[in-house]
Amino acid sequence: MRNPLIKRIPKELASDWHKYLVIILFMVLMIGVISGMYVGRESMIAAIEAGKTELNLEDGRFELSHRASDELLDSISTGEKADVRQYFIDKGIEEADQKVADAVEEELRSQVTDAISEGVRAQCEAFGITDEDMILAQIDTAMEENFEEALNEARNSDEFKDAVADAYEEAHKEVIKAVDEEWSEIEEEYKLNDPSFSPVRVKIYEHFYHNETEDNNNDGEEDSTVRIFRSDSVIDMASVIEGRTPSAENEIAIDRNHAETVGVGVGDKITVSGKSYEVVGLLSFVNYLTMHESNTDLMFDAFGFDVAMVTPEAFEKLTSRIHYNYAYLYEVKPDGKIEEADWSDSFLKSLITQSLVYDNEIKDYLPTYLSQARNFAPSDIEGDSTGTGIFCYILIAVIAFIFAITISNTIDKEASVIGTLRASGYSKGELIVHYMSMPVIVTLAGAVIGNILGYTAFRGMAVKIYYNTYSLPVPRLVWSSSALVKTTVIPLLLMFLINLAVIVKKLQLSPLQFLRHDLVKTRRAKARRIPSWSFLGRFRLRVLFQNMPNYAVLIFGVILSELMLCFAFGLTDSLANYGDRAPDMMFADYQYMLMDYRDDDGNIISTDEESAEKFSAVSLLYPKEKSSFSRFDGMGSGGDEGVTVYGISQNSSYIDIPEGMPRGSVSVSSAFRDKFYLKTGDTITLHEEYENRSYEFTVDNVVDYEGGIAVFMSNENFNSIFDRKDDEFSGYFSRSEITDIDEQDIATIITVDDISKVTTQLMHSVGGFIEIFKYAMIVLAAALIYLLAKIIIERNEHSISMVKILGFRNSEIGSLYIIPTAVVVVLFTVVSLAVGYLLMIWIFHVFMLQMDGYFAFYMSPASMILSVLYLLIGYAFVSMIDFLRIRKIPMDIALKNVE
Residue 270 has what pLDDT? Predict the structure, then answer.
């Protein structure tokens, strides 16, 4: 027999559709936004990963000074080191032999000439000839007749042969000595004598390019630099986002992100080095996901740099210097980061030695795992899951709260029905199933709609945000198990367990108690005394006291709402505040990182700039503690904190550290201390990312520096700990621009403008996500307040109906029940702001633990005021809806529910 209770479900939905609509809206927004972010992120990561094989991503690249011969490429491909020492010796001996031969020949001819001249002069003197002209004539005649014979005789003499052999032997010794002296330095510098060296075989591809000027608006002014490759390249290919690849000499396909940034589309014309090209395609190169022109650039520049392709015929006609760039692929893929780093070092040794042997100079070398243009975007996209996760956890807590209060209110409202059904013979199990049905239906509806929107509209929003920032391939729709668990499975389980627990607990009461609405086990034994106020004032106070449990729930809801608003406003303020303060966090106006502390001639790089001060630096990792919030653990896993270790000059004018700190004791930045709660005397362990080597340090003191996670020690201790030479250093701090260091020797220059560019890019990268979170939080906060205020009115329907019978007007009733609620909301909104702000400080700290770097949570006074106003304005609208609800409450409710 069909259960008659099933017929009540549509009626319940129709009678209380406002509440269920808000819950569905809440679920749809939560699931849609968060799953959209997860699915969008994972779709982009999937497309990026797929591009590695589909577009034949290189394992690294190198550039040579001139085109490599087939023999050189074959030698490099083997991965074997060339015998550079023997090459230099052979080359030196060849040159020395030539010099010795020339010198010997010159000396022999000189000696033979002198011998013939002396012999003729002796004969002339014997015959009494003194006329110099006659003597010279006799010498010339003797030279013509006897020089070659005398020369041959001298060459064949044992004395000459012994002298020549000695000369060659001495020259060879000098060559070997000179080569060994120079070779020992080269071996040490490039670690070419590493006993653990193992050859790594690779396949090499020509991947030449030209750097040309680009005028994207055809105004005759250079707008950017465009790096042009051939369209028929089989390595580091590009995915076509829009249009097609070029097929004619006057066609070009350019990077999509650059094109959108500068306002160029398919069909437009641009000028490249004076020649007009039609843009026929917008691309995403697999090795240029961000527009980093150089790997040492602090930040990519989609305005000033572009990557493009033209036909082979058009490529040959480009006029700028060709860059002999070669890409390589390992024949066997490395297993993990550490092995990849080891293989890269081994290959570099082969490259260095083989290029030397073939007289070719290495201009650049970059393994892909170190490429910013390739790795910056996926690393940043992966990091976005942290903020999404925190957002998700907050909303899950709110969902749990909503489920708890709504089911409790439903049981109270349905008390008479439950009592009647229990008295009519329905079992507790049947009632549990019945009252679980509606929450399950509503939650499932919200979950289905939310997931549909998450995989469509909200996913598109997330992808668009990524597209606005990076040059990414076409995303691939992927199934996100993490999104399903966090946005659907967990809320469904929470709904089921919370509703089940509340219903089971409530159904422990007897049918008579339900019929009498006697749902509270403990009651006040004595009436509460009310002050001698006006009748309406005393009535409102009585309403307040009678609804204390309801108002406690409302206050908790206001706190949750303010927490959501603090999250919405505080993230934007924190980033903006960090961006405003970042330039003031720099050690110096100019920070120069050098390629090496010596120039090509082996001289230590120096400067005449008076404010310049040497420093040393190395990047290490600090292992984060494994916790419920940590997603990674272990060396080189990608989850450790990047730490810059500085070696500082004595009496530094830029960074103040105590003198005489012992080896192993360090100063840490205030950002490092605040992020990991470090204190003086703590021991920290830092390790290499790509080597199994770690270092232990003791925290001696703290340097007031919020700009990064950093450790400071004296340069002397730095060189000792990291096995550096006494005169070695990494760069210069300076208050003024340094103009007397060759640009070729400078790796990076960090200025205030660079820091501002980084913070601007940071806002651009995550600002879109924050805006979505912000508006979603505002809507959800309003929905929460609506549900809470609605519950208070519903729980007082009997009293409202009674005062209507007593003749009170709707406006008077509204003032009796809405004003106490408004007073509670207004008073506790300010308190909730303080509570929400403090909670957000903790939550934001947890959020920052998942990110590299650190800055504290900040919320401006204006945002604090706005968060309060938004909540109060939202409640004002809710109050109007409550007033309309009061007007619709009939008087017969009081008569139907007389106890």
Answer: 94
Measured CA to CA in angstroms, residue 580 lies from 139, 576, 588, 753, 758 at distances of 92, 6, 17, 12, 12
**Which residue do the tokens 């000059």 mark?**
649
Cα distance between residue 245 and residue 310, in whole Å: 8
Neighbours of 692 (CB within 10 A): 9
Are 629 and 778 contacting, i.e. CB atoms less than 8 angstroms apart? no
φ, ψ of residue 798 to 5 degrees: the values are -60, -45
Cα–Cα distance for residue pair 61/338, rounded to 1 Å:
19
Tokens found for residue 810:
């709707």
DSSP 8-state code for residue 806: T
What confidence category does residue 636 fall into, taking pLDDT thresholds of 50, 70 and 90?
A: very low
DSSP3 helix / strand / coil % (the chain, rounded to 5): 55, 15, 30
Residue type at position 889: I
Q: 687: which residues sit within 8 A by CB, 6+ positions away?
A: 620, 621, 623, 635, 640, 693, 694, 695
Q: How many whole angstroms separate alpha carbon 854 and alpha carbon 574?
A: 11
What was the pLDDT predicted at 632? 37
Nearest to 108 by CA among 151, 44, 77, 167: 151
User: Measured between alpha carbons, how far is 178 from 174 in angstroms, rounded to an integer?
Assistant: 6
**What SS3 state is found at 745?**
helix
CA dihedral 426, 432, 435, 441 (to 10 degrees): -130
C-alpha closest to that of 701 among 729, 642, 653, 659: 659
Name the pTM for this structure: 0.67
Contact 241, 270 (CB under 8 A): no
